[in-house]
Amino acid sequence: MITELEDMPAGVVGFEASGTLHAEDYRDVLLPAITAAAEAGDVRFLLVVHDFTGMTPGALWQDLRIGVEHLRAWKRIALVTDIEWMTHLTAMFGWMTPGEVRVFPSERRDEALTWVSP
């Protein structure tokens, strides 16, 4: 499940993800916000993940599609999580992600928001 965070400053789109992610989460929640951000300029993205149990194949496809469709618009991505394997995978493969990517532990969410903001 993905829910949009309402307390984001101008120029930042933020979401919280938990449980299993489905294609509908991307299509109905993420895609409209990211498309609007890309049309307005840079995509500055904050993602907070407390728990994660997986992705459906459709969600994985939508995830790849979103990244590619707005390839040049991605400016910064802040991942806020205490899930160790996500931190390690982001460190290993973050260079493949468009824009700058940084991982922050949950207690540093405010720092992540400051970093990702314009």
UniProtKB/TrEMBL annotation:
Q: Which Pfam families match?
A: SpoIIAA-like (PF11964)
InterPro entries xref list: SpoIIAA-like, SpoIIAA-like_sf, STAS_dom_sf
Name of the protein this chain belongs to: STAS/SEC14 domain-containing protein
